[in-house]
């Protein structure tokens, strides 16, 4: 912009911006700090901000809880598993819609989107009963299946918007040169589509990791991911702030970092391409 | 360019996703609809019978339905109010050039990536606890009486937590929209003597209007289904003061095992969500044509 930006103006906004950022981030920072306190310091009045005896005891204790690793594994299996299956289903579908669109493509896309608008509670009862009768309650397979289906529309949509940006002429050129459909996909399309697929994957792992309706309702202990594990700290006897903070920090840190990397795709993925 | 053969291939490639999604949507929905006309309680097996619209009658005339509906609307409305207005203000600030802009942006969007159970418990215990919480300490240091958040203002407390989670989403999308605003237009307006306020109301706000609509609609869809935050903080209480429609149906289904009643409630929730979805789908569909 051609406008001159005065230093004073810039300094004002630096202070304002950082103040806002600090305030919004504070609950996360506070959780992080509390995770290094003893249970006594965690509830101390006045609160201890930085100058307390830092300890790793809480992390040790949370991890030594026999079931902690199980919940981490569950979270990883469920989020990564559902994303990979979702991608396997969505890549061909989005490819077809982007490169051989028919009159009905748009309707199919809109219909897929509309399934995402169905409130989960509308299908809670039958799904719970199906899960009960088929022995899927509290199993990883069941949760992977459910999360695949609830995120599939988002995966298809995101991939579709990415594939749409690949110029069709390149494919035609490849076809003219005699590339078969397989070759076209492997050598031409895939390299161009990898960034889009990667960010779709990232965003969907995040969404699946944090999903807390189906995971809370369809799992009890064996298949419970971290969302449900943390929820178990809500019982009054389990209120140990420092341990809660340590468990929370471990549960959100990896996803927070992934989220920071995928912030641009977030807009595209969650608005179904309506805002870019 | 689409030959018959490629069209057949395309259909073949789409079918797994389409068929699975179709089954996923239609089978449970039909079952919910079917159950909603039955007397069906898991605690009394063998007594299932067709009772017509009785479940709907019970559900829709139950006073707790109206409380839950009011709570749902308050929760959605309150959160939207905070996140949209806050999001616009934040986007305006983050759009200005300043030192460390990128880092501040990361700090601001961070809450969106925190799982709902974590944010609910952290807020409830470490910030809003009436004795040891940070807010209580702040209130006391100003000589004020600390607020017992979840006893005095339960629904507002949940709105605060949910708004904290969704503010980053609104900010990020509004910021994206703001950044596509033509700087020269602003400059021209400035040269014509338009003040900061009129520039905002006549240029910036209209430019962002579509993004604002998208934020409102998408958030509404998700906010109608807020669940985990209520489950881990209040269990819908005290009384039913923080019970929304989603939580009410959950309680009816998985705590009282009333399959029929919960199904009728589920159908009501689907209808409510569809009213919002109708507008959202039209908006996005319009965008697809460009």
Descriptive account of the structure:
The complex is a heterodimer of chains A (276) and B (290). Chain A is mainly α. Chain A contains 13 helices and no strands. Chain A has helices at 7-34, 39-42, 57-64, 68-99, 105-116, 124-133, 140-164, 168-176, 181-210, 214-218, 226-231, 241-261, 263-270. The mean pLDDT of chain A is 84. By secondary structure, chain B is mainly α. Chain B is built from 13 helices and two strands. Chain B has helices spanning 4-35, 54-61, 63-95, 101-109, 116-127, 134-141, 149-152, 154-179, 183-191, 196-223, 228-233, 245-255, 259-288, and strands spanning 38-39, 49-50. In chain B, strands 1-2 form a two-stranded antiparallel ribbon. The interface between A and B is large, with 105 and 107 residues.
Layout of secondary structure:
The complex is a heterodimer of chains A (276) and B (290).
Chain A: H1 7-34, H2 39-42, H3 57-64, H4 68-99, H5 105-116, H6 124-133, H7 140-164, H8 168-176, H9 181-210, H10 214-218, H11 226-231, H12 241-261, H13 263-270
Chain B: H1 4-35, E1 38-39, E2 49-50, H2 54-61, H3 63-95, H4 101-109, H5 116-127, H6 134-141, H7 149-152, H8 154-179, H9 183-191, H10 196-223, H11 228-233, H12 245-255, H13 259-288
């Amino acid at each position: 912009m051609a406008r001159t930006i005065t230093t004073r103006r810039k300094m004002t906004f630096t202070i304002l911006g950082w103040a806002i950022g600090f305030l919004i981030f504070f609950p996360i920072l506070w959780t992080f700090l509390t995770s290094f306190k003893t249970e006594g310091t965690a509830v101390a009045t006045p609160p201890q901000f930085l100058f307390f005896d830092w300890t790793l005891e809480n992390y040790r204790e949370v991890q030594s809880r026999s079931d902690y690793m199980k919940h981490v594994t569950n979270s990883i299996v469920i989020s990564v598993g559902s994303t990979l299956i979702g991608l396997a289903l969505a890549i061909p579908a989005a490819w077809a819609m982007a490169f051989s669109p028919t009159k009905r493509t748009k309707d199919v896309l809109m219909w897929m989107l509309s399934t995402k608008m169905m409130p989960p509670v509308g299908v809670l009862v039958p799904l719970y009963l199906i899960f009960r009768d088929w022995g899927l309650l509290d199993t990883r397979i069941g949760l992977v299946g459910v999360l695949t289906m609830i995120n599939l529309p988002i995966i298809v949509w995101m991939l579709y918007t990415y594939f749409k940006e690949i110029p069709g002429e390149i494919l035609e050129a490849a076809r003219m040169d005699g590339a078969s459909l397989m070759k076209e996909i492997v050598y031409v399309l895939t390299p161009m589509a990898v960034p889009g697929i990667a960010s779709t994957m990232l965003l969907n792992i995040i969404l699946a990791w944090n999903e807390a309706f189906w995971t809370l309702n369809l799992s009890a202990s064996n298949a419970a991911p971290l969302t449900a594990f943390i929820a178990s700290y809500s019982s009054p006897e389990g209120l140990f702030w420092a341990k809660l903070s340590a468990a929370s920090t471990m549960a959100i840190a990896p996803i927070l970092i992934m989220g920071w990397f995928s912030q641009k795709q977030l807009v595209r993925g969650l608005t179904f391409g309506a805002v870019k | 360019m689409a030959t018959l053969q490629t069209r057949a291939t395309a259909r073949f490639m789409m079918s797994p996703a389409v068929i699975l999604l179709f089954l996923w949507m239609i089978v449970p929905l039909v079952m919910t609809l079917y159950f909603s006309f039955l007397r069906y309680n898991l605690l009394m097996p063998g007594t299932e019978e067709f009772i017509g619209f009785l479940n709907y009658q019970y559900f829709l005339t139950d006073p707790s339905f109206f409380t839950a509906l009011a709570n749902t609307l308050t929760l959605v409305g309150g959160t939207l109010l905070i996140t949209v207005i806050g999001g616009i203000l934040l986007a305006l600030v983050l759009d200005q050039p300043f030192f460390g802009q990128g880092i501040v942006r990361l700090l601001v969007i961070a809450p969106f990536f925190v799982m709902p159970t974590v944010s609910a418990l952290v807020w409830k215990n470490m910030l809003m606890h009436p004795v040891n919480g940070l807010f209580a300490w702040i209130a006391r240091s100003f000589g004020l009486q600390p607020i017992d958040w979840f006893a005095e203002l339960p629904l507002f407390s949940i709105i605060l937590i949910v708004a904290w989670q969704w503010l980053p989403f609104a900010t990020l999308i509004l910021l994206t929209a703001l950044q596509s605003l033509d700087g020269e237009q602003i400059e021209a307006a400035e040269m014509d003597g338009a003040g900061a306020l009129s520039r905002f109301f006549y240029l910036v706000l209209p430019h962002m209007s579509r993004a604002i609509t998208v934020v409102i609609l998408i958030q509404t869809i998700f906010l109608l289904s807020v669940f985990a935050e209520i489950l881990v903080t209040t269990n819908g209480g005290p009384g039913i003061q923080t019970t929304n429609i989603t939580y009410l149906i959950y309680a009816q289904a998985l705590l009282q095992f009333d399959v029929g009643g919960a199904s009728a409630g589920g159908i009501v929730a689907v209808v409510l969500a569809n009213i919002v979805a109708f507008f959202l789908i039209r908006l996005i569909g319009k965008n697809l044509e460009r």
